[in-house]
Amino acid sequence: MKLVAAAKVRRAQDSVLATRPFSETLQSVFGGLINRLGGEAADLPLLTQREVNKVTLVVITGDRGLCGGYNSMMIKKAEARFKELKAQNIDCDMILIGKKGATYFQRREYPIRKSFDCGQNPNSKEALAISEEIINSFLSGETDAVELIYTKFVSLIASSPSVRTLVPFSASEISQKGDEVFQLTSSGGDFGVERKELDAAEPQEFPNDMIFEQDPLQIVNSILPLYLNGQILRTLQESVASELAARMQSMQSASDNAGALSKKLSQEYNRARQAAVTQEILEIVAGATALE
């Protein structure tokens, strides 16, 4: 089980690396267009900050158990954030990704906008369905902000529940925020993870005399949903990697506990058998002594 989970972690790692060229190009073009437009981009709906009266929480959990405290950790984080928003008199609902979280919150009658499954191999089609639901909810005015609660993959033995604002976007964050990738390694027969910080892509330079077929504002407005789709896919992949790492550790702990239990039971059996043999020998000796 541990080796199967490790293979799936490596597949998730390869998926993250495969999306890097697209993400870098998108970030570079967006940065160049923002520099070209200046303050005009602030008028775009997805970049507009407004008074927050309602927040939608996007919560990512797993579809299956046997992964230690991964699911319960995410559920507790979501419950704490929900109660925090309610204490500030801010209305709140949820978009749930993963069967474990959906089952938990449905039974407790939390306000749920929509639920999605979280497979072991997230793809762009699944991420697109989630990002469309987020964008439609925000642009229609049904929610004023969307926060994502996901698991940041730290190492094979640790993961960190994280909260970040998805919508509205921050132009400076998109164009200046760097990235981080992880790589599964094996040294001396032990699995490990190496994390690497990547700098933000340099904004693409557009000549002043360049003529765009479409208005640059429309291009930026088209890029933002693509950026959101990429961010959703990335966090799904990172959450799946965290779940698989937790499952690896859970299976390893189960194997270790089973080995320890087997050793303990063997010792108890051998002691009982030795005591029985010793008792029989004593009885034989006592009988022989009595006959003398």
Shape: elongated
- Major sheet: order of its strands? 3-2-1-4-5
Instruction: Output the number of helix runs.
Output: 6
The ordered H/E elements are: HEHEHEHEEHEEH
What is the average of the pLDDT values?
Answer: 78
Class from helix and strand fractions: alpha/beta
Profile the largest sheet: 5 strands, mixed
Q: What's the count of strands? A: 7
Low-confidence stretches: none
- Rg calc: 28 Å
Task: Indicate the proportion of strand residues.
Answer: 15-25%
Amino- and carboxy-terminal Cα gap: 64 Å
Q: Helical proportion?
A: 55-70%
Written overview of the protein:
The structure is a single chain. This protein has helices spanning about 1-35, 70-85, 100-105, 125-140, 170-175, 215-290; strands at about 55-60, 90-95, 110-115, 145-155, 160-165, 180-185, 190-200. By secondary structure, the protein is α/β, with parallel strands linked by helices. Strands 3-2-1-4-5 form a five-stranded mixed β-sheet, with helices on both faces. A two-stranded antiparallel sheet has the order 6-7. It is elongated and about 120 Å long.
Descriptive tags:
single chain, 292 residues, two-stranded antiparallel sheet, elongated
Tell me briefly what this model is.
The chain is α/β, with parallel strands linked by helices. Helices cover 55% and strands 20% of the residues.
